[in-house]
Write a structure and sequence with these properties.
Layout lengths: L3 H15 L3 H13 L7 H13 L3 H11 L2
Helix pairs in contact: 1-2, 2-3, 3-4
Length: 70
């Protein structure tokens, strides 16, 4: 199964992302893209990267560009 800590990490990132934390949105995007602690979903990951990018996270911008080009 999936390590419990990945599920908990995803839940924590989700709460922080909803409060506008760009790093949390980016990290949640990575978990979502890679299917860690949740189903893999490239379109959901892209949306999370975009959200973080709009808040000035350049790493998230690069990830959004990479996924958007698929």
């Amino acid at each position: 199964g999936v390590p419990e800590d990945m599920v908990k990490a995803g839940e924590a990132y989700e709460k922080a992302c909803q409060k506008g934390n760009s790093a949390a949105c980016f990290n949640l995007g990575r978990l979502t893209e890679q299917g860690l602690g949740r189903p893999s979903d490239a379109s959901a990951a892209f949306a999370l990267y975009e959200k973080a990018c709009k808040k000035g996270n350049s790493t998230a911008c690069a990830s959004a560009d990479r996924l958007g080009g698929q």
